Amino acid sequence: MKEVIIATKNSGKAKEFVRMFEPHGFQVKTLLDYEEIEDIEENGTTFEENAIIKAETVSKQLNRAVIADDSGLVIDALDGKPGVYSARYAGEQKSDEDNMTKVLRELNGVEPSKRTARFYCALALAVPGQDTVTVHGTCEGVILDEKRGTHGFGYDPIFFVKEKNKAMAELLPEEKSKISHRAVALSHLAKLLPEVFKGE
Ligand SMILES: O=P(O)(O)OP(=O)(O)OP(=O)(O)OC[C@H]1O[C@@H](n2cnc3c(O)ncnc32)[C@H](O)[C@@H]1O
Ligand SMILES: [Mg+2]
């Protein structure tokens, strides 16, 4: 089977990529399978910059085609925060619970019509000897005032998906993988994959 490497250490993302790549006939490997690769400093100012940093760093180390995902939650009432700081919003411990608690506290008292937000996902594809390509996808929603649902990861329990009329964490994995920011971004990248992986 063809193999694609995703430069992520996030097990929630990893599961979603396994599901989304299956129909394309790819087996997914992540940095959870390459423990020797050290943490990469994500010091870009945009999702695209961070995705490129992660994809190119790992592509150079392995001399292989690598995809990276940089994503996060963009909340209008917080001027776009947590944005590129989504993973560490409440501190270096990268706790989903602490991050959600911080967002809910900051939006305390903000009326529903002003709680609009979107998930954003940038994907970068780095191939040795080629220019790196980026694509992105978004998913529009509203920040709830309490957590709902048990699926997914990250901010999913406090993100109400307009299109589905449910919290993201209330969607089954197969539903999220059709409509998420990550799914939209990957749909843009999909057309490039046959050419990049034709030798495999
Ligand atoms: O950098 P890698 O190793 O891929 O893993 P990470 O968790 O640090 O990933 P990011 O730097 O891209 O930070 C993204 C954060 O945004 C949040 N996030 C991204 N996609 C999400 C999704 O589909 N559902 C809920 N939260 C999401 C979640 O808190 C992630 O930790
Ligand atoms: Mg990260």
UniProtKB/TrEMBL annotation:
Homodimer. The keyword Magnesium applies. Its EC number is 3.6.1.66. Keywords: Hydrolase, Magnesium, Metal-binding, Nucleotide metabolism, Nucleotide-binding. Its cofactor is Mg(2+). GO terms for molecular function: ITP diphosphatase activity. InterPro entries: dITP/XTP_pyrophosphatase, ITPase-like_fam, RdgB/HAM1. Substrate binds at residues 8-13, 71, 153-156, 176, 181-182. Pyrophosphatase that catalyzes the hydrolysis of nucleoside triphosphates to their monophosphate derivatives, with a high preference for the non-canonical purine nucleotides XTP (xanthosine triphosphate), dITP (deoxyinosine triphosphate) and ITP. Seems to function as a house-cleaning enzyme that removes non-canonical purine nucleotides from the nucleotide pool, thus preventing their incorporation into DNA/RNA and avoiding chromosomal lesions. It comes from the Bacteria. It is an enzyme of class 3 (hydrolase). Belongs to the HAM1 NTPase family. Binds 1 Mg(2+) ion per subunit. It catalyses: dITP + H2O = dIMP + diphosphate + H(+); ITP + H2O = IMP + diphosphate + H(+); XTP + H2O = XMP + diphosphate + H(+). Pfam families: Ham1p_like. This is dITP/XTP pyrophosphatase. Mg(2+) binds at residues 41, 70. It comes from Robertmurraya beringensis. The active site is at residue 70.
